Description:
Number of strands: 3
Number of helices: 5
CATH architecture: Orthogonal Bundle
Largest sheet: 3 strands, antiparallel
Distance between the termini: 63 Å
Mean pLDDT: 87
Shape: globular
Number of domains: 1
Helix content: 40-55%
Strand order of the largest sheet: 1-3-2
Strand content: 5-15%
Radius of gyration: 17 Å
Amino acid sequence: MPGEFPIPPINEVNLDDVLAALADRLRRAVVLELMNRAPGEYPCSSFTLPKAKSTRTHHWRVLRQAGLIRQRDAGNGSFVRLRDEFTEHFPGLLEVVKAGDRASALTKSPASGTDADHS
C-alpha cells in the first residue's frame, strides 16, 4: 500500500521483539487502546504520547518493527491500526497482556469501600 511504513513479514516477527516493545508502558497503552477501539485505523495524533515528535516517532517505529501495528502516512498525518495477522501468529498473547495490565492497575489503586480486615 503506498504510504505504508515497512513492517517485518509476520513469519519473521519474534516474541522477544514483541515483549520488548510491550515492556514500555506508553507503547503497551497504545496497543491496549487499539484493542479497545473498534477495528480500523486511527490518527496517530489521537493517542497520548510524549509531545516531542522524535519520541513519538520512536514509539511508533518500535511497535512497527516488533510487528504489532501497521502505520501509513497520509499527507499531514499518519494513521495506525493493529496488525490483523498478529493475533493469528501469537494467539492469545494480547489478551494476556490486557489481563495483566488490568491486574497491575488493580494492585496499584487503593481499594474502594470498606476493608474487611478493619471491621
